Amino acid sequence: MKIFRTLEPQQQRSLIILFLAGLLFWSSITTLLPILPLYLDYIGGTKQQIGFVMGCFAVGLLLSRLILGPLADTKSRKLVLIVGTTVAAIAPLGYLLLKSFPLLMAVRAFHGISMAGMTIGYIALVTDLSPPGHRGELVGYMSLCNPIGMAIGPAIGGFLLEATGYVTLFIVCSTLGIMSLLCSLLVWEPHSIVEKNSHSHQFKQQNFWQILGSRRVLVPAFVMLIIGLVFGTTVTFLPLYIQTNNIPLNAGLFYTARAIASFIMRIFTGRASDKFGRGVFISGGLVFSFLGMLTLWLANSSNMVLLAAIFGGSSAGLVLPMMITLMTDRCPPDQRGKFFSFCIGGFDLGLALAGPTFGLIAEQLGYRGMFALDAGLACIAIVVFITLSNKDLPHSIRFAFGQGQDNYSVSVNH
């Protein structure tokens, strides 16, 4: 990473510590991914109760974004990061100590605050520390903590459950959160970068709905909503889909293949997006999302399911970091927390809706029909992004295919 060596020592140190905090955080969060539903069943939960508890994570995530986004802009990015990692350290012990399902729903909602704090604080700090001309490259590299953590976490969870049981698992999960918190406390926040500029005024005059309703934010948020629906559907129902169709594959291998594909994409596309623009990579990621759902719809073998995982991971590795960088390009430095909340909130909403909504669809159409519908939604996202991602149709098409600038970029309008 040549760009890393050009940074000041304090920036280098802070980015390294920040990456470690993110890696520990995502390892903590994903340790519980395959385990928590099993634990809730173990303590006597019904399918409905398990569904409610799992769904409350997205509720806490969505609601806390509305508070933590503006807090990151007006107070401190680091403070929001510390809030997220503190909750990640505390919440796992709540699952262990509380057995009442209403209280477990509250703990799960509380746990959702951790992801809101981490994603907002982490992204804002990374972009604050990144030189504008190399922002895509650094965001791409720094976002690697997510797929690495998502590959490590479930493996840790599965091993601990087999070896020692639930008590040790929740304690280790909490310990990872504590280590992430300690790293967060050591991060340097470049206050001088979070400054007013000539573009802040126009956004401050707008209320919540006016900002969200502007095309510069609404289209990315809508695309992220669909990506959230597709991802949420896959995470929730893939193991059942494999089981129902008697496909000889361990579902864990699907998530491993997906994480590897996401990792590889993030390494190479961040730097390229600084040269060719964000649009062409987002468009490509949406096409991969469509191909992933189409492959799952037709899948009748383990190889096809793994191919779908590669498509899905490639989509995540392109769309998520590129959309974050796009929103960075489109907002003033002192508004990043708020704009990230709006855009990533679309993804959160998709995750929240995916389980209950597509569960009903699966009952009517079956799992294959459900994935076919997901493929249709991905097509809609492709069309919307290509035709509406910029100020008019010609500019949108050129931007989406890497042939034109982003007219909503703050630097373009400066």
Which descriptors would you attach to this protein?
Growth Hormone, Chain: A, 414 residues, mainly alpha, 18 helices, 82% helix, 2 domains
Total strands: the figure is: 0
Weakly predicted, low-confidence segments: 192-201
CATH-assigned fold name of the largest domain: Growth Hormone, Chain: A
Mean of residue pLDDT?
Answer: 84
How would you sum up the global shape?
globular
CATH architect. name of the largest domain: Up-down Bundle
Distance between the termini: 29 Å
**H-E order:** HHHHHHHHHHHHHHHHHH
Question: What is the radius of gyration?
Answer: 20 Å
**Helix segment count?**
18
Largest sheet: none
Total discrete domains: 2
Alpha-beta content class: mainly alpha
Helical content (DSSP H or I, runs of 4+): over 70%
Assign the CATH superfamily of the largest domain.
MFS general substrate transporter like domains
- Tell me what portion of residues adopts beta-strand conformation: under 5%
